[in-house]
TrEMBL record:
Keywords noted in UniProt: Nucleotidyltransferase, RNA-directed DNA polymerase, Transferase
Entries under Pfam families matching the protein: RVT_1 (PF00078), RVT_3 (PF13456), zf-RVT (PF13966)
Ranges where the Reverse transcriptase domain occurs: 387-657
Organism: Gossypium australe
InterPro entries to which the protein is assigned, alphabetical: DNA/RNA_pol_sf, Endo/exonu/phosph_ase_sf, RNase_H-like_dom_plant, RNaseH-like_sf, RNaseH_domain, RNaseH_sf, RT_dom, RVT-Znf
Protein name: Reverse transcriptase
Signal peptide coordinates: none
Gene Ontology molecular function terms on file: nucleic acid binding; RNA-directed DNA polymerase activity; RNA-DNA hybrid ribonuclease activity
Length: 1255
């Protein structure tokens, strides 16, 4: 295999292989292998065309001579002869090797130890001459039977390349070294220079340390490998094999560093899910390096070169010209049209001095450096960034940017076929993100609603749905004299052509403060560039225009520039020159839609209308420096526009005519009757995604992540706008199910479960995969919710004008000739209708008999009662003071159960507005997750998939275990009876065997594999583990050994099994300790005392569902841990646990107020309640009346904070709530707290080193 690929063939097992084609990329081969003897045949063009350089490297599963094997039975001479003959016929010569002689080994006991040289590299003479510096090396192996074989085509030439000077890059693997943190601390203290110079000094120190450390690690590795090779050459003994296992474990520790090394270069994150994937990261890094290499390049005159120095000159010259300002003067007309929307209060927000900083990294330093050593360097970095923000330091020192080229097409040749990405110094990114956080909060009020990008509350799906509606209207309008067109503009290098002077004047015209403009322009104008190509870096140059793609500020600054174009178009709309496309009959029209640099203009289909559009585009180009690529722009006309007019307008504008609109923002703009055909591309995308991954890199844990993070996410964007046909969803699910059950070795597999069962939650015996059709409806329901809760957004106004001008979206008819997007949204309305409930404020808008407003009953509506027309709205059920329910009236109108539920609804003292909330989410806001959970609950609670409560608890415990995912999935399959043991195979008519092949005593089924087999009992006895119950994980080696016995005929001994388990436990520990493994140990968080002068009050509640009663508990402690007071309180008519927890928090604040505390921290383990309190007036949950009272009471304190803590840190309040429920005591506790509470207090005091007890 060469550095640019090659030809390779390898196989294993006793399969018959036949490849019947040949090209420069594959070989026509036929191989036959059987037990009587091995016959090798390589046929076709491969054998006739001997001029092709060819190399084969890998596991041949055969030897050429008897001395290549040690131990075991003697190999048949005929087998070895056939292999030698095959190599001779194909003119393949052995490439030799460095390292240990044998490449394969089996057996840890002397009597069973076998070693062979099954892996090798062979090549033709032409290949050897082509890669004369090649080198084959047998690397040391750890717990695999085969050792890796490394073919280096550069060989000795690589040594000279390694001597080239490389720029500093922080290596994440350094953090694995135990001495590195102390070194970082010393290096940081040693330097007294400015921050950039200090970081440069750190880089030099780390580079030198790394070089010395690599030599030391190499010597250690070589010594281990030498000792390992020596042990391999000795006769096998128990001590010998034990030392081999110990050395292999040491080599695995070095392999972990290599894994982190390749992960950093692969730019992917896979290790966090618990699999060891060095080969995966190595492969991804290789692909990434191959894709980014530029082989040749054309200059502006069409001259092509492959010289590296010449190519980087071409690239640098291209960007110097691109980033040079144009000579034109800005037109003042456009600035006069821009509205001053930035108010004085907005400028005050922008110019605040305090800036919370979190550094993700520094130039050359990846994020992991700061995550691990922020306590050493964080203060200095924060001070430096604040000095720049306050104008005390210059930003140019850290504003150097490297430009790298990302190919847009395969094998790019010209500079226009690359996408430039700016690699900014991360110190600069910290500053830029602070500015972005300030500016993003006000841009929604400053930018025209037709711009949908990067503004909070505006979504890309809005632009897609609005554009689809307008184009659908154009298509359906076949009558009328006045027609319209849609013009999709292609802006050439939009970010790179932004004139700095235009940007500054736009900000000034919009009303930004001069100090803010100066701060932004300092960041924009102080940049300097250097182009990087194929590892070479060009000299630095200073631009005079352009925004960087990679700068956090650039998207927001581009919105400000695009606002100039939007202002021109709005002015034409007000004058009546370009009214745009009409929507419905409500005089609503739209003449443009922007999403960053994606522009669609809607104009009148006449020569006058086209001329207006042409002139406004020219004015925008002249003023801003932008350029429209008319060759790539296209126009679509309404159905009532004549062919002659179309031709005239197309000729005037110089754009392409589209009979059907092409994609907009990646989604189709026209979907006809053949819905499955329109979205059939997703089937191909699913298959390409799967084919692009080698299954040998993925365990079952990796497959789970791949399905959830890649496959299920692929159609998510389109599903927000379109309802996929059910058959299409089923096809996609079949692809995912087949991928899930496919064996990594045979590429085939038995489907042990249907997809619906896999879509159950993990606690209900499923894998938590998505039912795509239900997920599609949950995504579309989000659009319905936005239309209801944001009626003034552009999308809601467009749909209302078109389909429901006089009613609400839930009651609207689908209508005649509706768009596919509207029909998709209507299909999801039932999800929202069933999950909505009114939150009672004043009660004036809620109908007693028809609206959903009572929690806890079916449909949340009153049923089974005669309607009394005297009482229509809920406010009539309240007392005259409006703070409490009228109990007497409720008793007259409703039965006892309904009246009790109404009484449990909290009422606010303020006459708040009645609003609709989503009952399945604590915040009251609809989320796709809660919507899908509500839809999927029908499947979960069906009798077909119902899971017993004991098993549900087991599954929860299983998935919570801190072990690799593949082990958890194996145990899930075992408990769910999805393993291919004999009983299951017999049911599928795949075998006639039933007796366990290991113990030969009983039928092999899940129960037997789990704990009844004598072999497994011996394992548990050896490790002093009681015999397993259903809740403990099974042994992976048991199944591994059983499979080897059946499929390979290899017998084993108990000592070998135990040795494997010990090694596997060591492997699991290494993975657990890996730097990037995000699974945290189950270290319980404990209660911590507050600062001096602060009182901490913990609250909790014990809820009784049947009686609808709750006991709240609060306990107050000071900085010494002394208990200042405790209380339990009975809450009647609590509708659910959330209300009970909110009432407990309310009691905590009332308790603090009664004790006249000044500085208070209120802690509880109810996350939803804490979030609702922190939202303040934005809270829309059913708890709003309680949370508003809590916030109102909080105004009585000098300082009050609300914090969420886990149950382990809220133990005393939890225990007190339980004791209060047992004793039915409601009131304040003095010094006679329950014994269980005092014991817990003493325990926490000992751990925290505080006094504890009552004071």
């Amino acid at each position: 295999m060469g550095s640019r690929g090659g030809l390779s063939l390898g196989w294993r097992g006793n399969s018959l292989i036949s490849l019947k084609s040949f090209s420069s990329y594959h070989i026509d081969v036929e191989v036959q292998d059987n037990e009587c003897g091995t016959k090798w045949r390589l046929t076709g063009q491969l054998n006739t065309d001997q001029s092709i350089p060819w190399v084969v490297i890998g596991d041949f599963n055969e030897i050429t001579n008897s001395f290549e094997k040690k131990g075991g039975r003697q190999r048949s001479n005929k087998q070895m002869k056939d292999f030698r003959t095959t190599l001779k016929d194909c003119k393949l010569i052995d490439l030799g090797f460095r390292g240990c002689w044998f490449t394969w080994e089996r057996g840890r006991q002397r009597s069973t130890n076998i070693r062979e040289r099954l892996d090798r590299g062979v090549a033709t003479l032409q290949w050897v001459e082509l890669f004369s510096y090649y080198q084959v090396e047998h690397l040391s192996h750890s717990f695999s039977n085969h050792c890796p074989v490394l073919l280096d085509t550069l060989g000795r030439e690589r040594d000279s390349l390694e001597n080239m000077k490389h720029e500093f890059r922080f290596e994440a693997k350094w953090c694995l070294d135990g001495t590195f943190e102390e070194l970082v601390k010393n290096w940081w203290i040693e330097s007294d220079d400015s921050l950039p110079e200090k970081l440069e000094y750190m880089g030099l120190k780390m580079q030198k340390w790394s070089k010395d450390r690599n030599k030391e690690d190499k010597r250690t590795r070589v010594a281990l490998e030498a000792r390992l090779n020596c042990l391999y050459n000795e006769d096998a003994s128990d001590d010998n094999l034990a030392e081999i296992a110990e050395i292999q474990l040491g080599l695995n520790l070095e392999a972990d560093k290599e894994e982190v090394y390749w992960e950093q270069r692969a730019r992917v994150n896979w290790l966090q899910h618990g699999d060891r994937n060095t080969s995966f990261f190595h492969n991804m890094a290789g692909q990434r390096n191959s894709r980014g290499r530029v082989l040749d390049l054309e200059d502006e005159l069409g001259n092509r070169t492959s010289n590296r120095d010449e190519m980087i000159k071409i690239a640098s010259r291209y960007f110097e010209n691109l980033f040079s300002a144009s000579a034109g003067e800005p037109d003042k007309h456009i600035f006069g049209l821009v509205k001053r929307r930035v108010t004085t209060s907005m400028n005050e927000v922008l110019l605040q001095q305090d800036a919370p900083l979190k550094a993700p990294g520094v130039d050359g330093f990846v994020a992991v450096f700061f995550q691990k050593y922020w306590h050493l360097v964080g203060d200095d970095i924060s001070k430096y960034c604040l000095a720049i923000l306050n104008g005390q330091s210059e930003v140019g020192v850290i504003n150097r940017t490297r430009i790298v080229l990302i190919p847009k097409v395969d094998k790019p040749k010209t500079m226009s076929q690359f996408r430039p990405i700016s690699l900014c110094n991360v110190l600069y990114k910290i500053i830029a993100k602070v500015l972005v956080n300030r500016m993003s909060s006000i841009l929604g009020d400053c930018i025209n609603e037709a711009q949908g990008a990067f503004i909070s509350g505006r979504f890309i799906s809005d632009n897609v749905l609005i554009a689809y509606e307008i184009l659908h209207s154009l298509k359906m309008k076949k009558r009328g004299k006045k027609g319209n067109f849609a013009l999709k503009l292609d802006m050439s290098k939009a970010y790179d052509r932004v004139e700095w002077d235009f940007l500054a004047r736009m900000m000034n015209s919009m009303g930004f403060h001069n100090d803010w403009i100066v701060l932004i322009m300092r960041c924009v104008c102080s940049v300097s560039y250097s182009v990087s190509l194929n590892g070479l870096n060009r000299d630095w140059f200073s631009p005079s225009r352009g925004l960087r793609q990679g700068d956090p500020l650039s998207p927001y600054l581009f919105l400000i520039c695009a606002e100039g174009f939007s202002s021109l178009l709005e002015d034409l709309k007000l004058k009546g020159s370009m009214e745009g496309a009409p929507i419905g009959r409500d005089r609503l029209s739209i003449n443009h839609l922007f999403f960053a640099d994606d522009c669609i203009l809607f104009g009148d289909a006449s020569l006058e209308g086209a001329n207006v559009v042409h002139e406004v585009i020219k004015e925008y180009e002249r003023t801003t420096g932008q350029r429209v690529n008319y060759d790539k722009s296209l126009i679509y006309f309404g159905a009532n526009v004549s062919v002659q007019v179309r031709e005239e307008i197309t000729g005037m504008l110089g754009v392409r005519l589209a009979s059907n609109p092409e994609k907009y923002l990646g989604l189709p703009m026209m979907v006809g009757r053949r819905k499955t055909w329109a979205f059939n591309s997703f089937i191909d995308r699913f298959r390409k995604r799967i084919e692009g991954w080698s299954l040998r890199y993925l365990s079952m844990g990796g497959k789970e992540v791949f399905i959830k993070s890649v496959l299920q996410a692929t159609p998510l964007y389109a599903m927000q706008c379109f309802l996929f046909p059910k058959k299409l969803c089923e096809k996609l699910e079949i692809i995912m199910n087949r991928f899930w059950w496919t064996s990594n070795k045979t590429l085939r597999g038995i489907h042990w479960s249907c997809w619906d069962k896999l879509c159950l939650p993990k606690s209900a015996s499923g894998m938590g995969f998505k039912n795509l059709f239900l997920f599609n409806k949950a995504l579309l329901a989000k659009q319905v919710w936005r239309i209801i809760t944001h009626p003034h957004c552009l999308l809601a106004r467009v749909l209302k004008a078109r389909y429901f001008p006089f009613i609400d979206v839930l009651n609207a008819n689908v209508g005649s000739y509706p768009s596919f997007t509207w029909r998709s949204i209507c299909n999801a309305r039932e999800v929202i209708a069933e999950g909505m409930v009114w939150r009672v404020g004043s009660g004036a808008q809620i109908n007693i008999w028809n609206d959903p407003w009572i929690p806890g009953i079916e449909n949340n509506r009153i049923s089974g009662h005669d309607i009394d027309s005297r009482w229509c709205t809920v406010n009539q059920l309240l007392e005259t003071d409006k703070c409490t329910w009228n109990r007497e009236l409720l008793g007259e109108l409703f039965d006892e159960g309904t009246a009790s539920r109404i009484l449990s609804i909290p009422i606010s003292a303020d006459s708040e507005e009645d609003i609709l909330v989503w009952k399945y989410e604590g915040s009251g806001e609809y989320t796709v997750r809660s919507g899908y959970r509500a839809l999927n609950s029908i499947l979960v609670h069906s009798n077909k998939y119902k899971v017993e409560e004991d098993y549900s608890e087991f599954y929860k415990a299983l998935w919570f275990l801190n072990i690799p995912s593949k082990i958890k999935i194996h145990n899930w399959r075992l408990v769910s009876n999805m393993l291919p043991h004999y009983s299951n195979l017999s049911k599928r008519k795949l075998t006639g065997e039933l007796i366990c092949p290991l113990c030969k005593e009983a039928t092999e089924d899940s129960c037997h594999l789990m704990w009844n087999c004598n072999l497994l009992r011996g394992v548990w006895t050896y490790f002093q583990i009681p015999f397993l119950d259903i809740g403990e994980p099974s042994d992976p080696q048991k199944n591994f050994s059983r499979n080897r016995l059946i499929h390979e005929g290899i017998k084993f001994q108990l000592q070998e099994v135990l040795g494997f388990i010990r090694g596997y436990i060591s492997e699991a520990d290494i993975v657990r300790q890996n730097l990037h493994l995000q699974v945290k140990p189950n270290s319980a968080e404990l209660w911590r005392p507050p600062e001096v002068g602060v009182i901490k009050i913990n609250f909790d509640a014990s809820y009784q569902r049947k009686e609808k009663l709750a006991i709240t508990a609060i306990i107050a402690r000071n900085e010494s841990g002394n208990i200042l007071g405790a209380e339990t309180y009975l809450v009647k008519e609590a509708v659910d646990p959330f209300v009970a927890e909110a009432r407990a928090c309310e009691r905590a604040v009332l308790f603090a107020k009664a004790r006249r505390y000044c500085r208070v921290i209120v802690e509880g383990d109810a996350l939803s309640v804490i979030k609702c309190i922190k939202r303040g007036k934005k809270d829309k949950s059913l708890l709003r009346s309680i949370t508003q009272k809590i916030n109102h009471l909080g105004q009585n304190f000098q300082e009050i904070f609300y914090r969420y803590v886990p149950r382990s840190a809220n133990g005393m309040a939890h225990m007190l709530a339980i004791e209060g429920r047992r004793s039915s005591f409601s009131g304040c506790w003095s010094d006679n707290l329950p014994e269980s509470v005092t014991m817990l207090a003493e325990k926490e005091s000992r751990v925290m080193g505080t006094e504890g007890g009552f004071s």
